[in-house]
Specification:
Elements: H1 2-16, H2 28-36, H3 56-66, H4 71-95, H5 101-111, H6 113-118, H7 125-139, H8 150-166, H9 170-186, H10 195-216, H11 226-232
Helix pairs in contact: 1-4, 1-5, 2-3, 4-5, 4-7, 7-8, 8-10
């Protein structure tokens, strides 16, 4: 019922605000069109290689455009990702041993105002939220659960890097997680084996870094617009 309610809310917003899917406030549609056309990851206006935006979401849109889809395909993608986020939130909470409270967690995500607001917009928030919920579902385990296997840790690294390729602020989460691992290691407490996670993350991140090194002469891991965010965030002139 929670999944159905969340899907109906998202579907209703997509139906009422369908025209917003033709808008392109952050240039993701234009970049994706060029990728689908074989031009590469280029600036929509100057047609020069760029790393101003993260690559994961434009690649998803490019796949839709390559198959002949447009606004309907984007709407379907966002609806599926939104429903998946609800399910994965419930699954992660259950793995943590929260029992009936898992329904509350799923319910919060189902009606979350920001998740609903971004559903009819061509922006990374919906995909990023899905990847984060998938990451937590993979990594979550209860206090009495056995240690995570290498395969699940490897998948965790892949999904973490995919999330960071969608929303680069996730790299900060990874840095804090690594620092926490070091603290626990020093304190001689139980720690996971990090190498499968690092290998999975490197597998996803390496092509982007290598591409940026070749075409931009800089090994950019995230994007080139992070500084703009720090400078312009909450700036009245910017808004």
């Amino acid at each position: 019922l929670i999944l159905l309610a969340g899907s109906i809310l998202r579907g209703g917003l997509l139906w009422r605000q369908f025209d917003r899917l033709a808008e392109d406030p952050d240039g993701y549609r234009a970049i994706s069109r060029h990728i689908a056309a074989g031009d590469g990851f280029v600036h929509p206006k100057w047609l020069t290689p760029t790393a101003y935006r993260p690559p994961a979401y434009p690649l998803l849109l490019a796949a839709i455009f390559k198959m002949g889809g447009d606004r309907g395909g984007i709407a379907a993608l966002h609806l599926i990702l939104g429903a998946g986020t609800i399910l994965l939130t419930y699954g992660a909470a259950m793995r943590l041993g929260l029992g009936a409270c898992s329904l509350i967690a799923a319910g919060i995500v189902a009606v979350d105002p920001l998740c609903l607001q971004y559903t009819p917009q061509v922006m990374t928030e919906i995909a990023g939220t899905f990847f984060v919920s998938l990451l937590f579902w993979l990594f979550a385990r209860g206090p009495d659960a056995p240690p995570l296997g290498k395969g699940r840790l490897f998948a965790t690294g892949i999904v973490f890097a995919a999330a960071a390729m969608c929303r680069p602020t996730l790299w900060a989460f990874g840095a804090f997680a690594a620092a926490w691992w070091v603290v626990r290691k020093i304190a001689r407490r139980e720690v996971i084996t990090p190498w499968p996670i690092l290998l999975g993350a490197a597998l996803i991140a390496a092509p982007w870094v290598l591409r940026n090194t070749i075409v931009l002469s800089r090994p950019i891991l995230a994007t080139t617009h992070g500084g703009y965010t720090l400078l312009l965030g909450n700036n009245p002139v910017y808004y």
